Amino acid sequence: MLTDHVSDLTAMPPTPADDDALDRPGLDPGGDISRRAVLRAGAVGAVGLSAAGLVSTAATASAAPTRTPVFVHGVASGDPTHERVILWTRITPTPDVTAGSGRGLATSVRWEVAPESGFATIVTSGTVTTGPDRDHTVKVDVGGLSPATRYLYRFTVLDGPAAGAVSPTGHTKTVVTPDSALGTLRLGVVSCSNWEAGYFSAYRHLADQPDLDAIVHLGDYIYEYKVGEFAGKFGVVRPHEPRHEIISLQDYRIRHGQYKTDPDLARLHAKLPWITTWDDHESANDSYKSGAQNHNPGEGDWRARKANSEQAYYEWMPVRPAVDENGRHIYRRFRFGTLAELSMLDLRTYRDRQVGATSATIDDPRRSITGAGQMKWLETGLATSPTRWQIVGNPVMITPVLIPPLEPTMARGLTELLGLPAGGVTFNADAWDGYTMDRKRLLDTIRTQKIDNVVFITGDIHTSWAADVPVDPANYPAAGTVATELVGTSVTSKNIDDFIRVPEHSVTGVVPAAIRAANNHVKFMDPDAHGYSVLTVTPAATQMDWYFVREKTDPRTGQYRGASFRVPDGVPRVQPVNRAAR
């Protein structure tokens, strides 16, 4: 038995897929800057161009030993390394100690880690204390584990009214050692999971995908809006708690607690370790370093609200923030042997305020989306990594999407006269398109340092994309490509068909064609399906398979595979493929 290798971090029936059938008709295999405005504009612009509840503990894990409501928020693990993993849960010692209540006394909790064979043998264990100061969450960083090993874990309440209560059993796994030659890495990829817009069936189907190593959530794990402000196609599917927009620490805790009661989310957390980052809705829509589009007069100091959102996030999520000379931060890196390194970004905390899509200020070299410290960390990490693949967990799109792309030198007279961005008017100034000099710096580093196999995996925009990241969008493909980008759709959050209230895929033949006609480095775009992706990395290629749910308002909906694209080793181009990776 190992000793107690732990740091307490708290303070800081499924429907099978239509296997390889691209069976959805119309799928193509080949001022206000919110994503709502972007998607509305995309739909309208493309058409124009074309024409011209709570659950029991037993419900959250099949191996739950009791129906006690003490562990109503389930269990989770995250941030795996070759010898460590974060374990998480929350206890409700009495019925009144609900999320964000601030009630209850300090409570001791024992955690145990065991082999997959069961708890007859305990690999390591320990005891921690939780209470209202951390919203009765429990979060431990368990060390001394073996590489590439699957484990079981559980929690037991040791004192107080809930003494003896045992949590559901969670499953987790460590990764291989940094110098190991890993043959295959499989990651589930999700983002933009809005409670009010639908059920989290994408999580249910993702949990049934075979041989996954971890789940990557690229942001918008929760949404901050009041009831009805940003719901589904035809309104609220299930209302948020609290009903008002969340601002206080209590508010953020309550909202996190509500999301953790979803049975499909709870099951996926209990099955695999997660690697997460935040985007904007974990705090407020279109946030930046000194404010947010959805932080308005009368809502108090932005810094206090952001601090509240971060505290609740660190309490309620199985993350291990990095700590260095820049302080505590969520951008961090994960190594999967010699095969791949995953760099998870934070593109909200340090960015300058967004500007309009037609503003020449987009090209101001003083503006940054990453901040200087994170940019240096990212460039250095990519340049020095010894792995074959560099995967970047990227909350917002980096691929240029312009209307249309312009060659800066040739178009200078026109753009300067009109006060437009040098490369053309952007589709989405909230993404890297709104910070062109930061993007240029990063892509120049990748190109001049000859960094191969950089693949950006991205969320945020509620739609699916596969694209080459070009050196010069107006001179593609002649000028070459630097990297590739694979963008996953939303779990539930609105996209184009939801905004204009038409049947799903009514605009599939219009919107992608219009975007690709102007930006031919974009090889695939689905504007209105919801679901998840699976990223499979091998020495020969990296492939993303998109899986879409049939009806997000149906908690038992089925799924289908929508598309698959691969990036060959040494070739920064996306290529369509006919079968899902295995």
Describe the structure.
By secondary structure, this protein is of the alpha+beta class. It has two domains: 412 residues, 4-Layer Sandwich (Purple Acid Phosphatase, chain A, domain 2), CATH 3.60.21; 117 residues, Purple acid phosphatase-like, N-terminal (Immunoglobulin-like, Sandwich). Helices cover 19% and strands 24% of the residues. The chain has eleven helices and 26 strands. The strands form five sheets. Strands 1-6-3-2-11-10-9-23-24-25-26 form an eleven-stranded mixed beta sheet. Strand 2 and strand 3 form a beta hairpin. Helix 1 packs across helix 11 and helix 7 runs parallel beside helix 9. The two termini are 36 Å apart. The N terminus is likely disordered.
Overall body shape: globular
| CATH top-level class of the largest domain | Alpha Beta
The CATH homologous superfamily of the largest domain is termed Alkaline phosphatase D (PhoD)
Query: Span from first to last CA?
Result: 36 Å
Proportion of helical residues: 10-25%
Q: What class, by secondary structure content?
A: alpha+beta
What's the CATH architecture of the largest domain? 4-Layer Sandwich
> How many strand elements?
26
What do we call the CATH topology of the largest domain? Answer: Purple Acid Phosphatase, chain A, domain 2
Instruction: State Rg.
Output: 23 Å
* Sequence of strands across the biggest β-sheet: 1-6-3-2-11-10-9-23-24-25-26
Number of domain modules: 2
Mean pLDDT: 89
Question: Unreliable segments (pLDDT under 50, ≥5 consecutive)?
Answer: 1-33, 41-67
Annotation field: number of helices: 11
Largest sheet: 11 strands, mixed
> In percent, how much strand structure appears in the residues?
15-25%
